[in-house]
Specification:
The protein is globular and about 45 Å long. The relative contact order is 0.15. The chain is built from 11 helices and 10 strands. The protein is 36% helix and 16% strand. Helix 6 links the parallel strand 6 and strand 7. Helix 3 runs parallel beside helix 11 and helix 7 packs parallel to helix 8. The protein has an 8-stranded parallel beta barrel with strand order 1-2-3-6-7-8-9-10, surrounded by 6 helices. Strands 4-5 form a two-stranded antiparallel ribbon. It is α/β, with parallel strands linked by helices.
Length: 273
């Protein structure tokens, strides 16, 4: 059979999985727009260096922050530029708007872009339009698209309902997303049906259920079929971000040596990232 030609998107997707195993460990560091600084200005480069030393595949930051990071840190790690935002001070914190575009991410040398969509929010329709617009631009530029899809807003009774999550991740797939990030289902064992419903890889959002150790959360997500994790606050706010990242990377990329099991009697309510 003739060898299949690689596209720009193929190349960039490969860079987002450092183990070349189609598993992903993303560390979102975009929280300074929504909540305020997560580390000192001088300390940001050090934080990125620490999570990369721990084995993260990529960090997620906004376009302006990307310009402040030492470019040599991305020699063998990925950069995902986040294109949507809201702040904790807004009348509706769930109303995400686009604050960047794919062309800007291309100029920054990004390996991917991400967009957040809150399904069930008051301005859900506008967020879906934005997602479709970004997906079209990603197709033009060969840029991988990560969608952070959350059931949030007045229409949502249970954001961990498996049927609801299956709907949410399939919205992403239908609109042209390459990798979708969302929360774990409750009970966690039913996350497997969410994964089975999705034609694209799912990475679990890092707001681990209350009372569950981060390692057990990671094992649960992979055991249910998720292809990785996107963990922000529980890494960068930990006493040792490198060690926290290393523990997750060992589970994700060294999964053959880690017993994949579901922790017993886990409380599967998902907290904020």
């Amino acid at each position: 059979m003739p060898r299949q030609l690689l596209t720009g998107k193929d190349v960039r997707l490969a860079r987002l999985s450092r183990g070349q195993d189609e598993r992903y460990l993303f560390i979102p560091l975009d929280h300074s727009v929504s909540d305020g600084p997560i580390v000192s200005a001088e300390g940001f480069n050090g934080l990125v260096a620490e999570v990369f030393a721990g084995g993260a595949d990529a960090v997620v930051v906004h376009k302006g922050r990307a310009r402040t990071i030492d470019p040599t840190l991305f020699a063998d790690r990925g950069l995902v530029v986040h294109l949507s935002a809201s702040t904790a001070h807004a009348p509706d914190v769930n109303a995400k708007v686009l604050v960047g575009n794919v062309e800007e991410a291309v100029r920054l040398g990004a390996d991917g872009v991400s967009v957040q969509v809150n399904i069930g929010s008051e301005n859900e329709a506008a967020q879906l339009v934005d997602l479709g617009t970004v997906a079209a631009a990603c197709a033009d530029w060969g840029m991988p698209l990560l969608a952070m899809m959350y059931p949030r807003g007045p229409q949502i009774a249970d954001p961990t309902d498996p049927d609801l999550l299956a709907h949410v991740v399939n919205i992403a797939a239908d609109l042209g997303v390459d990798i979708v990030k969302s929360v774990l289902a409750s009970p966690v064992e039913r996350m497997a049906q969410v994964v089975e419903s999705s034609p694209i890889p799912i990475v679990a959002a890092g707001g681990a259920p209350s009372g569950m150790r981060l390692a057990d959360f990671a094992i649960s997500a992979l055991g249910a079929g998720c292809r990785g994790l996107a963990v922000g606050r529980r890494v960068f706010a930990s006493p040792n971000p490198r060690l926290a990242t290393r523990e997750l990377a060992a589970i994700i990329h060294g999964v053959g040596s880690v017993p994949v099991r579901l922790p017993a009697a886990a409380n599967t309510r998902t907290g904020e990232l």
